[in-house]
Amino acid sequence: MQTAQSSTQGSKAATNGVVSDPRSGKYLIFQLGREEFGAGVMKIREIMKMQEITTVPQTLAFIEGVINLRGRVIPVVDLRTKFGLERQEHTDRTCIIVVRAQSSEGELPMGIIVDGVVEVLTLNDADIEDTPDFGPGSASPYLLGMAKVKGRVKILLDIDQVLSTQELKGISSILQ
User: For residue 111, how many other CB atoms are within 10 A of its CB?
Assistant: First the structure.
């Protein structure tokens, strides 16, 4: 019988003697520049074309503003800015992915701007590896792991960790 293993990125649960990685499952794959990222489909509420975003003064640089989503005001985060990537003009592929981020105060719907949606992939245990250690000063708790698919690497994100607790509290205060 195999024993359950644990990693810094996520624990592996044993079921019926088989080790199963909780990170396996369906992911929405999207692009930021040349890189591809994935977010668990259960965290995705919807995908929408770019629309006018209302700027909110004196917010964090990566908060693009807010949009009206069927009568509810939700914050929109520019993921390029959040990850320290160069800003780029929006194209016809640029879209907003509405996600369900979980904070200590509950679920917070939030839009994330991405360069384009690529596909939905089902990833198995063998497709996913732990995030390499990038050395001191490079903490990245929002990385679930790395997926290897068709010779390419896709960076898997933990949407709940992409924004820190402090940042989520700041966003929540905008909406009150």
Answer: 27
